[in-house]
Amino acid sequence: MEKTLAAHGLILRGGFVFSGNENAPPGPSGAPARSVLLVGQAGAAPWPHFQQWLGSQPDGLANPLDTWAREVIGAVAEKFGARAVSPSDKPWLPFQQWAMRAEGLKPSPLGILMHPQYGLWHAYRGALLFDHEVEIERPQGQIHLCDLCVGKPCLNSCPVGAYSQSGFAYDNCRSHVRGENGEACRGEGCVARNACSYGAEYRYPADEQTFHMASFAGL
């Protein structure tokens, strides 16, 4: 499975077995799934694969990254007898809770889960649900890098103060990115996210960050 995912720049991001009293989503048979494996990325590995795929699609395709991920992970699910689900599926599935459980991560002040190796430069693109138990070793005692960070540059760098200990001011952020003063965010990515030095070697390239900011702002 890892080799199949790697051909698209994707990796397994941990998993777990659902307990008997959990309200697990349906597996491939329609009965409650017994286990889940998360699929995602570390750094920009999927970006060239996605760009190549996008070049073969019609202009103006809505939600292209979600569409690509669904197509790729769906094919993997079919090959390995699983049911593929996406973070954008409705009703929403608890992907962040699954990720915290699978990899032992905690949220950063920006809300993005902080990874001890990848920093803020990683993502979850989907998950595979199985009717049977899939044993996978879960990491123990993960270091939460935000606990070691004294200056919290992520909270002090946003030009409109969209991030604080009380939460994320979504409307302020989106208005800024779309406005005349948001050129730096549109062209170089989120200033607050880039202010974090952890996992810098996995930072997304400028064109990928521009893509994500345009998608966030609806541009």
Biggest beta sheet attributes = 4 strands, antiparallel
- Alpha-carbon distance between the termini? 36 Å
Low-pLDDT segments: none
The structural domain count equals 2
Structure class: alpha+beta
Strand order of the largest sheet: 1-2-6-3
- Overall residue-averaged pLDDT value: 93
Bin the helical content: 25-40%
How many beta strands in the DSSP annotation? 8
Radius of gyration: 18 Å
Identify the overall geometry: globular
Strand residue content:
15-25%
Number of helices: 9
Descriptive report:
This is 4Fe-4S dicluster domain-containing protein. It comes from Borborobacter arsenicus. InterPro entries: 4Fe4S_Fe-S-bd. The chain is of the alpha+beta class. It has two domains: 142 residues, no CATH class; 69 residues, no CATH class. Helices cover 34% and strands 16% of the residues. It is built from nine helices and eight strands. A four-stranded antiparallel sheet has the order 1-2-6-3, sandwiched between helices. Strands 4-5 form a two-stranded antiparallel sheet. Strands 7-8 form a two-stranded antiparallel sheet. Strand 7 and strand 8 form a beta hairpin. Helix 6 crosses helix 9. The radius of gyration is 18 Å and the shape is globular. The mean pLDDT is 93.
